[in-house]
Each structure stands twice: as C-alpha cells, then as structure tokens.
Amino acid sequence: MSELGQKVALITGASGGLGNFVTEAFLAAGATVIGVARSIQPAAFADPRFVAMPVDLSKGEATKEMVEAAIQRFEKIDMLVHVMGGFAGGELIDDTDDATWDKMMNLNLRSAFNICRAVLPHMRKVKQGRVIAIGARSAVEPKAYLSAYCASKAALVSLIRTVALEGKDDGITANVILPGTMDTPANRTDSPSADFSKWVPPAKVASLALWLASAEASQISGALIPVYGAGL
Fold first, then answer.
1. For residue 101, with 0-12 CB atoms within 10 Å meaning exposed, 13-18 middle and 19 or more buried, which class applies?
2. CATH architecture assigned to 2-227
C-alpha cells in the first residue's frame, strides 16, 4: 500500500481501543494521520506523520473549524476513517432515559454527521475521497436492552450509505465495517469469563479499513462488511 505515502487520513477516535490499531496501520502504510479525539495529545503516537487535533465532534461548529485547520495545513483530506463511538445500555426501552439516548446519538451518529458534513465538501472539490466508518453488528442485528445503541448504529449505517449515493459522481466511496465483539482491554474487563478467542482482533478490522482506503477497493461503495469473528 505504498500509495498511501502521499495520502492524508483523518481518523476519529484515533487513540481508542480500536483507533490505536487503525492509526498504527495507516501510519505504517505511509499516510499522514490527523488523529482526532476529544482530548488526544501529540504524544499519543511516536511518529512525525501523526498530528493530534483535539475536538468534541458532537459540536458542529468546532468540528468544522478543526477540519478547516487541517485543510489549511495539509491542503487535503484523502480519507476519513470514523472510528469514534460509544456503548451504553442494559435497560428495557421503557426504562431507557433521555441521557442514555442522547449520549448514544451524540457519540455514534451526530459525531459522524458533523465530521462528514465538514470533510465531504473538500473531497468533492478534488473529485476523490474515501469514507470508512466503524459500525457494529448490532446495527443490522439489534439486541434486546440495547435500544439506544442499536438505533444509533443503524442510523450510522444509513448515513454512510447516503454518503456513498451522494458521492458516486464525485469519486467518493463510503463503506461501513460491522465488527462483532472486539478483543479490546475494555471488553475483556467487562466480560472476564468470555472466550476471547472468538472475539474479533482489532488488527483485523484495522487491516480491512486500510484495504478499503487503497486503490484495490476503488469500486466498492455502499457496502456493509461483516467482521463477526470466530464466534459467529
């Protein structure tokens, strides 16, 4: 994937459990990476091609200002990899409060809307771009007691597929990766008795995101790609 040596990737949630793997993969492929998270620091990755841009992506104007600053510095954003997200649940719909609903919509949907709205105009100007979002299996296979989480991830899928439709004449592809349970430290802490061998290694998801950003994936857009792991 040597062609990424001239590319600029904006990765949201760059320092999270999965984001670390995605960021490392894109840096290893030669891309310049703009790492975005609410409190990300330059020291998060020891690579001169990594640039930290902290922002709260639930804030539309702040997101737009961050993207404009990135364009001013690098002149382009070739790839948007939206990893950021969150999880909350465990209640019946009847008992799900407004705070939980709003949190899931902000983390899993509004943030994606804000970053897409800010980045896409710059991709349209140059008639090329890749948008890759990390969804969840629950987006297409909802589970009980996770109404806000599942609904927000399903809406994310609809948003990114709309990006694909609206970008087809502008050289912009957009796809969603749907992981099952990922083998991250946080998930191991939450489910210590689970069989971790059946979970999805984050490096596999990062490799798929990298491939979707490559020339080999130029004809793929609007796809929902399941990565459910050995525990199908």
1. middle
2. 3-Layer(aba) Sandwich (3.40)
